[in-house]
Automatic annotation (TrEMBL):
Keyword Repeat annotated: yes
Top-level taxonomic group: Eukaryota
Protein name according to UniProt: F-box associated domain-containing protein
InterPro entries: Gal_Oxase/kelch_b-propeller, Kelch-typ_b-propeller, Kelch_1
UniProt keyword annotations, A-Z: Kelch repeat, Repeat
Pfam families: Kelch_1
The keyword Nucleus is annotated on this UniProt entry: no
Length: 210
């Protein structure tokens, strides 16, 4: 079932098996731009409107979900960038704190076991080609501050496709489907699974200890 309006700039996330979409849409009658926010329930196979954003904005790709709340970044004007937060069944609210300021462009965000982490590229590794140095940070809600946890050696930074939680670890997925895993409890890179592209099909091959 399609959205109830034509979308122009949107952000999306999944919370509790429901798909949330918000951003700027277009009125089909007079092509007027308007803000919208909707949720899709796969069990009912329908879209329903939720509360509108506190400020209409065009979302970027920097949104993330943490502790059951959707944090969405966007342009309220050509020069004004802002964050808004939405928790299901409530209303949107502007956010301006150290947590979201640490989630700047180019930083991967991942929520794992109630903690928010960022993974950011630092520099190429000077010893091994195709490997780079990254920094893992954690957010402390009590002090509203970010703390560096470790620097780690990962596969080439420009090929990272996604950073996601997986079975209690942080999984770094590369464009060729290779993977790294960061064990946050022991603060080490547990393993590297190499990916290969064969005849346009992507497969995973061997596992190497790093």
């Amino acid at each position: 079932m399609p959205l109830k309006c034509e979308s122009l700039w949107t952000g999306s996330c999944v919370i509790n098996d429901r798909l949330y979409v918000a951003g700027l849409g277009c009125n089909e009658i007079n092509a007027q731009q308007l803000g919208f926010a909707q949720v899709y329930d796969p069990k009912q196979n329908n879209w329903n409107s939720i509360s509108q954003m506190s400020n209409t904005m065009a979302p970027t790709f920097d949104g993330f979900v943490h502790d059951g709340t959707w944090f969405l970044k966007g342009y309220a004007s050509e020069v004004e960038v802002m964050w808004q937060a939405y928790k299901p069944e409530t209303t949107w609210s502007p956010v301006d704190n150290v947590m979201v300021s640490g989630c700047h462009d180019g930083v991967f965000k991942v929520s794992l076991n109630g903690q928010l982490y960022t993974l950011e590229y630092l520099r190429p590794d000077g010893e091994i080609d195709s490997w780079d140095i990254w920094r893992l940070n954690i957010y402390n809600r009590a002090t509203d501050s970010w703390k560096e946890l470790m620097e780690c050696k990962l596969y080439g930074g420009h090929s990272v496709a996604a950073v996601v939680p997986l079975k209690g670890e942080i999984c770094i997925l590369y464009k060729n489907m290779a993977m790294n895993f960061i064990d946050v409890s022991g603060l080490h890179v547990r393993e590297y699974i190499a990916g290969e592209v064969l005849e346009n099909d992507i497969v995973c091959s061997h596992v190497l200890e790093v």
